[in-house]
Amino acid sequence: METLNYIETTFHEDIGADVLKGLTAPRKSIPSKYLYDARGSAIFEEICRLPEYYPTRTELSILKDAAPAVMERFCGGDIVELGAGSSLKIRTLLGGLPAGRLQGIRYIPVDVSIAALEASACELVDLYPGLELLGIAADFTRHMDMIPAGRKRLFVFFGSTIGNFDEDEGAGFLKGIACSMNTGDLLLIGFDMLKPRAVVEQAYNDSAGVTAEFNRNILRVVNRELGADFDLGLFSHRALFNEERGRVEMYLRAEAETVVNIGALGLEVGFEKGEGILTEICRKFTREGIERTALDAGLAVTAWFSDPKGWFSLVIMERRGRQGG
User: Fold this and answer.
1) Cα–Cα distance between 265 and 181 in angstroms, integer?
2) Are strands 312-319 and 299-306 parallel, antiparallel or unpaired?
3) Hey, how many other C-beta atoms are within 10 angstroms of the C-beta on 155?
4) What pTM value is reported for the model?
5) CB atoms closer than 10 angstroms to residue 31
6) Which terminus of the chain has fewer Cβ atoms in its 10 Å neighbourhood, N or C?
């Protein structure tokens, strides 16, 4: 069994600046990455098993069928999973390998949660003895330079996490990946497709209240990391589909007027009754929009996999006109 190595960055130092900027803005917000500490990651895994939450099971069904075709195009090197989370999807992808093809493949999960990285690694080394792993505890939006180069790479970005960026952020992120890709590198990326409002809103407002608990976890993180005194009982979960912008917007809404002290920042933040904190956006996509964004980023769509309803898509992209290796 290979030794599991970690490269760890100090991304948590950014939380003070992010919270200060977000909670002093005219429309309050906290970046969604702070939802995913160890507790938040565990709650999200519970969300993925809910009957209302279609993205995970739909993506997995597509991936199971597509994995052999994807892995046939990837002849060895590094599989770099951005926002790794649990090992379920990468196990499904590795399941598409022909017998004996594991040698020469290194798996590089990149995630903000060390606990999630360790849990995933333990499962994988048991299932795939000899698989080399290099875990990177980092914010992949800021620390792409931590990912080793020099070998052929398959970047994987599951879960339609690209939808958590607004249009400009998503375009910039894809351009950044494109600039780091060499000839032969591949990007496998998941997109949640545009669909009726009722289906989308139900997925983010489950009857068991698990998503609400996940949403409020971001306040626990701010309380713990910055010495804040958010009363979680005063903030309710709300997720709405903004049809004009084609995205779900997830908020925490103050149920009463309140003042929150954030000790590490020396900051008092007032909330009016009904005022919201934007904690996450989840954009939904069309094929035309995906292909246009890829083109603008310098990428070409070279394979497309979807489910019969067209609810979710897995797309392979490659760098256009890239020379060298």
Assistant:
1) 39
2) antiparallel
3) 23
4) 0.89
5) 19
6) C
